[in-house]
């Protein structure tokens, strides 16, 4: 498996830089080669077959790594005597070291070769995705710092691996975040197969880290056991042994110090960010893998409309109202949840807020889908790996909340569905399923529509406004002139709003409303509101470890779904 050699054409200085694109007549085409297809009739056919073969072999590499890691994790869960958590950490540490070696080679070697990055995918790695990589990566680093501090305090009953593993994780997170921030748009044109294998190895490692985070409840079980011991002491009951994967005695308990309590609370609070970071990195790395060897056509102009708030009034008002009410509900919930036992009324308030908001979002998405059907905009049929991945991620990430909802429905129907809180949870679960489905249809349909040209205000009006703005900037603006300027801006806004067709206006209102709603629904579970785990219903029905795995599988996917929906809805808003 070898990639094509670099052309003997003398490399120019412009090709060495990571330019967005090179003219089609001057760029050097690097055709891929593969030993299975060396007898193909044409160079283009051999290049296409070699590309498919490279993707196949790199995919097989990732599949074998994932199966090996899954076997280790399964053995740890069902037979933790033969395979321990330390063994899994050692395997993942080896994989992370291999990924670090490849990323370093890519940064210092592959990307710096002549004609290495002739094209860059403008759709890949948008700012909000790269920003989320940095955000979740920062919280993941803080999580590992808390884990190192917690293990250091309990060093007498902890393994040295529990300190080494988070340290390697911090280095891996920093290097990977830097790599994705600067190279997520690359369409690499050299060393195709080696780059594909490196990307797939990194994807497999992130998937295994996510799977470990979903199934490993060691520290959570330790803290839960300690809290039960404290409650039993206050209740005057005899201490009962609690199950724990770590097989440690009750002597391995957190001392009654502030710093240890901070490490415990911080670890539990930030834990979902680590799983979120792994999922986001996998999506960005997958787009990079699809873009290896891709040559972007330059005769197709890339239209990139700008984000403007013109033409929306009711969407921001309703969305801002939902955000403000949601923040109030979230703060009241957090105040109650941080106490010894959350009050029943706070759960009723929390689920009532969702029961009111979710139908509004569903109706808005259905109306938007109907408007899309009434429009005469043509479908965008150009090949776009980023857009295809967006649709796959929206459908896949929605499975997290949908799956948790079905588990909750079964638990409620099997226990007492006529109870007030249980009926609220049942209604919440059904509405959440319907809202995810309707929103996915609206976003995916909107992403496949070709953008319209923005005609508000016209070019002549924009030039006049720019000239007026420059004239105003050159002299001091008095209070009277400032009032006139505000009046002109208001009239211009009303003028642009009235000139929008009712379909485009409705799509913009709906998209902006759904953006703000998804933002508040992203904030609440991300920063600590987890009633699905704290209400105790499903946990008592399925058992602690089972429901822990279900929540840690569905909750990060749900958070990722809300964040990804915001990006998709902004695309729909801009192209409307």
TrEMBL record:
The keyword Lyase does not apply. Residues 1-23 are annotated as: Disordered. This is OTOP3 protein. One of its GO terms (cellular component) is plasma membrane. The keyword ATP-binding does not apply. It is a multi-pass membrane protein. Belongs to the otopetrin family. One of its GO terms (molecular function) is proton channel activity. The chain crosses the membrane at residues 56-82, 88-108, 128-151, 163-181, 193-213, 268-289, 309-333, 353-371, 392-413, 425-447, 510-529, 541-561. PANTHER family: PROTON CHANNEL OTOP, PROTON CHANNEL OTOP3. It holds the Pfam family Otopetrin. InterPro entries: Otopetrin. Keywords: Cell membrane, Hydrogen ion transport, Ion channel, Ion transport, Membrane, Transmembrane, Transmembrane helix, Transport.
């Amino acid at each position: 498996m070898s990639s094509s050699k670099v052309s003997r054409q003398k490399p120019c200085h412009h090709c060495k830089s990571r330019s967005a694109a090179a003219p089609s007549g001057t760029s050097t085409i690097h055709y891929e080669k593969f030993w299975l297809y060396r007898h193909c009739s044409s160079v283009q056919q051999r290049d296409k077959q070699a590309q498919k073969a490279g993707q196949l072999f790199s995919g097989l590499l990732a599949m074998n790594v994932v199966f090996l890691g899954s076997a280790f994790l399964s053995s740890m869960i069902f037979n933790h005597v033969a395979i321990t958590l330390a063994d899994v950490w050692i395997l993942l540490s080896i994989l992370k070291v291999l990924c670090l070696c490849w990323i370093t080679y890519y940064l210092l070697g592959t990307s710096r070769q002549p004609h290495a990055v002739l094209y860059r995918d403008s759709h890949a790695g948008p700012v909000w995705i790269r920003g989320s990589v940095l955000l979740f990566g920062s919280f993941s680093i803080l999580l590992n710092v808390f884990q190192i501090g917690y293990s250091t305090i309990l060093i007498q009953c902890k393994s040295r691996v529990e300190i080494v593993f988070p340290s390697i994780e911090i280095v891996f997170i920093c290097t990977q975040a830097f790599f994705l921030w600067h190279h997520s748009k690359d369409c690499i044109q050299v060393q195709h197969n080696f780059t594909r294998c490196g990307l797939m190895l990194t994807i497999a490692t992130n998937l295994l880290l996510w799977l470990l985070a979903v199934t490993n409840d060691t520290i959570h079980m330790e803290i839960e056991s300690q809290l039960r011991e404290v409650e039993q002491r206050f209740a005057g009951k005899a201490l009962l042994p609690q199950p724990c994967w770590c097989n440690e005695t009750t002597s391995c308990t957190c001392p009654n110090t502030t710093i240890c309590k901070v490490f415990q609370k911080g670890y539990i609070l930030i834990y979902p960010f680590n799983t979120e970071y792994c999922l986001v990195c996998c999506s960005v790395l997958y787009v990079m893998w699809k873009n290896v060897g891709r040559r972007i056509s330059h005769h197709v102009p890339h239209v990139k409309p700008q984000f403007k708030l013109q033409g929306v009034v009711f969407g921001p008002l309703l969305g801002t109202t939902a955000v403000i009410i949601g923040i109030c509900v979230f703060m009241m919930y957090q105040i109650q949840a941080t106490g010894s036992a959350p009050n029943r009324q706070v759960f009723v308030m929390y689920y009532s807020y969702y029961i009111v908001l979710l139908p509004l979002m569903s109706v808005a998405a259905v109306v938007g889908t109907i408007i899309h059907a009434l429009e005469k905009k043509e479908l965008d049929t150009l090949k776009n790996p980023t857009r295809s991945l967006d649709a796959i991620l929206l459908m896949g990430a929605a499975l997290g909340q949908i799956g948790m909802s079905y588990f909750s429905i079964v638990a409620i129907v099997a226990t007492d569905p006529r109870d007030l809180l249980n009926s609220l949870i049942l209604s919440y679960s059904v509405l959440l399923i319907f809202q995810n489905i309707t929103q996915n249809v609206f976003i995916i349909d909107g992403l496949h529509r070709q953008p319209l040209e923005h005609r508000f205000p016209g070019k002549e009006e924009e030039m006049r406004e720019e000239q007026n703005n420059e004239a105003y900037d050159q002299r001091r603006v008095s209070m009277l002139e400032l009032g006139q300027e505000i009046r002109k801006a208001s009239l211009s806004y009303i003028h642009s709003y009235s000139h929008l067709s009712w379909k485009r206006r409705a799509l913009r209102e709906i998209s902006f409303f759904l953006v703000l709603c998804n933002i508040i629904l992203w904030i609440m579970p991300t920063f600590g509101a987890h009633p699905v785990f704290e209400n105790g219903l499903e946990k008592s029905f399925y058992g602690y470890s089972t429901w822990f795995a279900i929540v840690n599988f569905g909750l990060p996917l749900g958070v990722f779904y809300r964040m990804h929906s915001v990006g998709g809805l902004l695309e729909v808003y801009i192209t409307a």
